[in-house]
Amino acid sequence: LNEGEKDQELVYVGLCFHVMKSIDEDDAVEHSTDELSQKIQEYGLFVKNTLQPELKAAVRAREKVEDEIAEYDTLRQNLDLISSRYELVDSGSEGGSLVTLETQTSESKEPLEAMVDLGHGLLYCKAVVDDPSMIFVDVGMGLHVELSLHEAKKFVKERISQLCNSVLPKRADDAKTVAMHLESSLFLLESLGKEARKQEEA
User: Fold this and answer.
1) pTM of the predicted protein model
2) Residue 22 above 60 pLDDT?
């Protein structure tokens, strides 16, 4: 946990301890209706202003990673289609570190035509790529790097693996943790509400 997550965890644990301690002491100390109303309001604001926004943010963060994985997977499929028009020829040494591109047929020398997304899947335009053997790939942090098809396919494969195996599980765990905190807090609020109703009926 980073410092912000540790602080939030401490606040949540302190809140739960305080509420449960109040409930456990019900037999020894009878809380007034005003005290219960104040507690319900205090914890209700904590749920509304802290936990619910954090849950929404955590879910959005998880969905953002899922969208990024889907975009890279679409790019991978497109790279496979482009690569089908070319032949990867190993022209390096025994290690095969140098890879060049050679056209398979005369038709593959034709420019590549594609529909390009200009913004959030709402607007597209037709684009013509004279030499599709080199492409620009979003590598994160708003940076785009020109890569060969071979380099791009390798990068996309590694990026998808990283997102699926490292980033997405962390985002999913964060969302699950906040959801559990929210569920527990709602249970505590319900317990306080029951205590308030008992006093009203007494």
Assistant:
1) 0.67
2) no
